[in-house]
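Slide 14.
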Amino acid sequence: MTFLWYIPNQVQPGHRGDDAVEHHNSLETLTSHAEALEEHGWAGALIGTGWGRPDTFTVAAALAARTATFQPLIAIRPGYWRPANFASAAATLDHLTGGRVLVNIVSGKDNLPAYGDSEGEQAHRYARTKEFLQVVRRLWTEENVTYQGEHFQVTDSTVALRPIVDGTRRHPRLYFGGASPAAEEVAATEADVQLFWGEPLDGVAERIERLELLSEKLGREHAPLEFGLRVTTLVRDTTEQAWADAEAKVAKMAQGADGGTRHPNWQAAVGQRRLLDLAQRGEVLDDNLYTTPGRFGGGGAGTTWLVGTAEEVARSLRRYQALGITHFVLSDTPYLPEIKRQGDQLLPLLRD
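Slide 15: predicted structure.
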């Protein structure tokens, strides 16, 4: 199994209740997070993307240069990158780091006019993403690639500096998220890992089954699709303290101190709507999946939280593992102290 965290490369401090420290996005501050991840047992961290944030690939490259084992899960967008440019950049960083690069392909809407994209409707976005993945994978594994698609074309193209090949690893692993039918077709045929948000167990089980059947139906040509979970984990020494702190955080969000930041594009996304609709089923699902934060929070991984002691949260995560989840991207705020707390208390239980 792979256990990753989240590093907040944000312009504004205090992301999702994080400590608002001076120079929060300086190289020194972000490096302290990456070094803490290495020290406390994490494989690496997701570094998010969005126009107006510090450039994700640049941050990932800088942190990889300052660390020894840290694996950056680099979120990137087709449209912001063209496939050949990205394939070359990622292969170079993978080569320089000895094979530590991971990639998270994001197809959701962003501030497209700001960087000159015109990705259009959902079907267009995911058709383009499918081509992007096909071109990148071929450039990482083949020479003299010619590809003539609707959205991308390359002619006699070769990435000279190859990604690291190690055993069954032929290139950086390609993570992907999305819950719409168009997104699931891309995942079923082209991704290496499908990432889910923090849905209840029955929802994740249903999606895994559907994606496995879809992979077979569409004639997947790669290794079997793997599955991951991106979720907030609030861990405390006692159950009572965990829930008291969770409810206090939500109360603060409800007062507007940490709310009102959900981007309108997120609410329209199928996966985000699935999360927001969970509150209608109950405030707490599957023992300790807390749905109330979605009413006030910033969306995505902040919509639902797994709450409890390390033992209780580990038990919940092992239930996801039993369904087939092998990649976990966890986080809570303040990020740096929680890297240490959950690395020391939660990860040993999961590895046992």
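Speaker note: The two ends are 11 Å apart (CA to CA).
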